[in-house]
Specification:
- The chain has 591 residues and is α+β, with helices and mostly antiparallel strands.
- It is 29% helix and 24% strand.
- The chain has an eight-stranded mixed sheet with strand order 6-9-10-22-21-20-17-11, sandwiched between helices. The chain has a five-stranded mixed barrel with strand order 1-2-3-5-4.
Length: 591
């Protein structure tokens, strides 16, 4: 018999009854039922119930068992007594009568429980992540993550893509976040950067004649903590294709992402034919460039109903042609208590309030706004929004460029409070026609709004003859249930257009050559039209595992302060290490 096991803890079935089995695993829990000891023994594959009664030669040793001890158990497989079957377990029809045990690894007192799924402080969970990962839900999430990666790889290869690995030590690139820098010992005073994304390398692969690339790529960004991204590093399904239009990218990737979702949706509906929503429309209707389409609330502009009305606050705002009034329908929200609660919520978000109209029995509008604009305008708003008695509408006003994100938050809040979000489905959509540039208020300059390597719609002609802030790009995102899960674009593969695009954002030609010399040179020697995207693996896994915390689907994540509590990173370098790297630290003064 094998030194440690003849079967795993998930393998025994009724067909094994009367056999002698050897199991090794962790003591999940011990139960004492009237002097009979039941040990739930757990390994990666499952749980088997093992039994010791006072007649068992190992009974006295089993009494010493504690949670998470690693033990070997030998015994006879037998049918569980009538009425004690556990249909929830694959091994639930049998048990092992213990004849011999060996303690392979005793465990100290646990800093957090493994049995059960109770909440526990996150810093303790991360410090003792090896224990946390033994917990059933987290363990299963990690296995699901691996299966999702397998599904992605299989589907990408079926689509004719080839997997490549690109360098980890590279040059700095303006991807929109700070680089992690790695000092060079061989070249004093110079630094490598960890890749924020394999963007340049995958484009260079297209220059090199490889037609369809993909990679499950690690990416590194020195960002401040964000709720929707792990600090430090994340993984993405990275993709690039040659001789393609935007439609070709969509046709190749839509079935891959849909298929992965269908594989792991556990029966929940998944969008079959994805809508394509222009950025401006997404902002206008949903107040988000990653709209949650499970929420059926669609915002509408209602400026005309307030222009010249008795509600002077909005009427005066509308004298400025750039200002508008948007309405957010609240189906079933037509009570004074609910409307006041929404108004208080808006004030908590730093807004002056959230105007509203309620429609009561008989369909007449009520509330301060209704009283000021009168029944005719109130009825016109109700008709435009398709509302009825018992419903409400909430209003935001001003410059849409400044309030659309708040309007989106209000739409989400209403959807959650009024149960208007169907949470048992996955709604996928392409968001297209992103603006090429945006105005950076902090630095008072025009900057890229998205990926700087994307092709502007209209090409070089648009870059030379159009207001930069009106140029749209061949850039697109995939939105799912309120998250951006992928981003991409058709690339700007013409050197003169690339130089002009960066010039508008404040980069001179020589700076472009210095920073992106590899790509710039490659574009001179026959560059194919190409494009691609990158899908966030972590977010996709998070959605499919039904959690909203990325730490629940990652093996060894950092905490929100970008610290690895398990391994003690970041840590101080020794004087010897710093000397080898020709580095001297200059720490900020302690306050």
């Amino acid at each position: 018999m094998h030194r440690y096991r003849s079967h795993t803890c998930g393998a025994l079935r009724e067909s094994d009854i009367d056999q002698t089995a050897r199991l090794s695993g962790w003591v999940h829990r011990v139960r004492d039922h009237g002097g009979v000891l039941f040990v739930d023994l757990r390994d990666h594959y499952g749980i088997t119930q093992c039994v010791a009664d006072p007649d068992s030669p190992a009974f006295a040793e089993v009494e010493k068992f504690r949670s998470e001890w690693v033990v070997r158990i030998d015994g006879k497989v037998r049918r569980r007594p009538a009425g004690t079957d556990n249909p929830e377990l694959p091994t639930g029809m049998v048990e092992v009568y213990i004849k011999e045990i060996e303690v392979l690894g005793p465990a100290a007192e646990l800093p957090l429980p493994v049995f059960g799924e109770q909440e526990y402080p996150e810093d303790i969970r991360l410090k003792y992540r090896f224990l946390d990962l033994r917990r059933e839900k987290l363990h299963q999430n990690i296995m699901t993550r691996g299966a999702i990666v397998d599904s992605m790889r299989k589907r990408m290869k079926e689509q004719g893509f080839f997997e490549f690995q690109t360098p980890i030590l590279t040059a700095s690139s303006p991807e929109g976040a700070r680089d992690f820098l790695v000092p060079s010992r061989i070249h004093p005073g110079k630094f490598y950067a960890l890749p924020q994304a394999p963007q340049q390398y995958k484009q260079l692969l297209m220059m090199s004649g490889f037609d369809r690339y993909f990679q499950i790529a690690p990416c590194f960004r020195d960002e401040d903590p964000r709720a929707d991204r792990l600090p430090g590093e994340f993984y993405q399904l990275d993709v690039e294709m040659s001789f393609v239009t935007q439609d070709d990218v969509f046709a190749a990737m839509e079935p891959v992402i849909t298929g992965v979702f269908e594989d792991f949706a556990k029966g929940k509906p998944v969008t079959k034919n994805w809508p394509r929503i222009p950025f401006a429309e997404a902002v206008r209707k949903y107040g988000s460039d990653k709209p949650d389409l499970r929420n059926k609330i669609v915002m509408q502009e209602v400026s005309e109903h307030f222009r010249g009305s008795g509600f002077k606050v909005f009427a005066r705002m509308l004298e400025d042609p750039k200002n508008q009034v948007w309405a957010i329908p609240g189906i079933g929200g037509g009570s004074r208590a609910f409307c006041d609660r929404m108004n208080s919520w808006a004030q908590g978000e730093g807004q002056p309030g959230l105007g509203y109209i309620m429609w009561r029995e008989g369909g007449e509008g009520a509330g301060p706004l209704a009283n000021n604009i009168g029944p005719e305008r109130t009825a016109a708003i109700r008709d435009q929004l398709g509302l009825k008695e018992g419903d409400a509408a909430f209003f935001v006003a001003g410059d849409p460029e400044k309030f659309w994100k708040f309007a989106g938050l209000a739409r989400t809040k209403l959807g959650e409070e009024l149960n208007l979000i169907d949470k048992d489905r996955f709604e996928l959509a392409w968001i297209v026609d992103f603006p090429m540039y945006e105005y950076d208020e902090e630095n008072k300059k025009i900057d890229f709004s998205h990926n700087p390597f994307s092709m502007p719609q209209g090409g070089l002609d648009a870059l030379t003859g159009q207001d930069p802030l009106t140029i749209k790009a061949f850039q697109y995102d995939i939105a799912c249930n309120g998250y951006e899960i992928a981003s991409g674009g058709i690339r700007n593969h013409k050197p003169e257009a690339m130089v002009k695009a960066f010039e508008i954002a404040g980069y001179g030609e020589q700076e472009v050559i210095d920073r992106f010399g590899g790509m710039y040179r490659a574009f001179q020697y026959g560059a194919p039209p190409h494009g691609g995207m990158a899908a966030g693996l972590d977010r996709i896994v998070m959605l499919l595992c039904g959690t909203n915390n990325l730490r629940e689907i990652s093996l060894f994540p950092m905490n929100q302060q970008a610290m690895d509590l398990l391994m003690g990173a970041p840590s101080e370098a020794t004087p010897k290490q710093l000397k080898e790297l020709h580095i001297r630290t200059s720490l900020p003064a302690k306050g």
